Each structure stands twice: as C-alpha cells, then as structure tokens.
What does this fold into?
Amino acid sequence: MPRHILQASPDSEQFTSLIATLAQELKSDSGASQPLILEKFVKATGIRNVSVVWEAWKAVPEDARGDVILAAYETSEGKEYADTILVAEGYTSLEAANLGMLPYRVSVKPDKAGPFSRANLNVAFKAEATATVLGSKAKELRYARREDAEAAAKRLNTLLPGSVWVVSEQTEPPDE
It folds into this structure.
C-alpha cells in the first residue's frame, strides 16, 4: 500500500488570524473563558503536550488545528519553546467535554439549596456558565481543573449565601 504524508498548512488568511489571536492570548492572558489552553509539561523529558479548547476550531479542519497551535506558540514564545511541544491538539468545547477533558462538575447540593427560588439558582448558574468554556448555554458547570471548579463553587456559595455548591469528578460527558 502506498504511503502518503498529508500536511495541513496554516498559511491561509483564516489561519493567520487564528494564529495571531492565539499567540496574543499566550502572551497576555485575557481572562476570557476561551481559548482554554491546557499545557502539560513532562519534567523528565522537557516535553509539553498542549490542548486548546476553543469554539474557533469549528471553522478549522481537525488536521490543521495542531499546526495553528504550534505556529501560535512559535510566534508568542519562540521556536525553541514551540519545539518542546510533542502533541498539539485543538478541540471545540463540546469535543473536549465528550473526551472527558472537563471532568470537574459544580452543582448545587439538592438538600442544601437554601431559601432560594429555582429562578435565583438559575440566574446564578447562568452567570457562572458564561465564564466557563462551555458558555452560557451549558446545562452543567464543567471545568478542566479542580482548582477552577472549587473557585466557581466558592463564587456561587458567596453569590447565594445559604446555598451549598459542591465539586464532583465526573467520568461521563456533560448533559447536552
């Protein structure tokens, strides 16, 4: 069987814009919920694995996403740093959730919801959801890191005194 090496090229204008946007985010964290950049560093080898969760990937073929990420790292951090990246993968928020990359869920403890109406709980939930990678239409509050989920639970507990929001680790994808 013949061997074919396929290469995507992040040189089109569409990709150039995405590279610039991602590079800017790498240089100075905007605090926005997207793109969410997850960088795993393996100290023993000096290698990094990078996952970027971003709705902008919807317009980018899956096989080009890694090239866009590498080009953005090279632009913002330099070639030497970019060369330490072994795996660069881009996912939409739904793809990331379905792959188990958002394992930490924040939810209100049913018996500890406090003296609040369902409407008040929904307002608090929606306010927090807009700050998550899944966005305002999320049916669950999901996070990639436990510390982010714990911070969200703390914000919600403060927003609605008397309510108890808890963090749990989930193995199944979020409800759609």
Remarks:
- The beta strands are 36-42, 47-53, 85-91, 104-108, 141-143, 165-169.
